[in-house]
Model the fold of this input.
Amino acid sequence: MGGDHGPAVTVPARSLRLRSQSDLKLVLVGQRAVLEKELARHAGADSARLRIQEATQVVGMDEPPAQALRGKKDSSMRVAINLVKSGEAQAIVSAGNTGALMATARFVLKTLPGIDRPAIITAFPTVHGHVHILDLGANVDSSPEQLLQFGIMGSLLVGAVERKERPLVALLNVGVEDIRAMRSSRRPMSFFGERPQLPRIRRR
Done:
């Protein structure tokens, strides 16, 4: 239900994804009447792999995360995350309020042992292909320990998705000199060097 244009964008997008991946099943979470109306405009042969899960509330794009977490327990975002927790879904895709999504996911799903905070990651194109960068906005400031955790998470994700045995992990900074780094990123280079989980690391 979220995003700048809501179901008018997310519902048509579901058809593109279902056509491109024949073994995929989708659950659209939100207000049933709104979703069914939009689905009727984009009817297709993929209905057997699609179902609607009712949710009566919607988190606004400018709504404070704490307010959404406490006051909207039947929002499309919260219901979708609950589906992942229960095992009915393996992942959630949302175009909605990022802060509310991260806060709700952390509250409902928790984090893995040894991980303090979640992080946002995406692939950026480069001259030679692409790189994955994190964190992209989930955290305003992070400790050296948390930067290490981001490095481990990114390394494991790239290793699993791209079948890379030893992904290179780099610390992105405003310059190579230590004096130009934020206080939180001055220590990680030596801190990372002590960790066998990250055999390949450099500062950028």
Remarks:
- The radius of gyration is 20 Å.
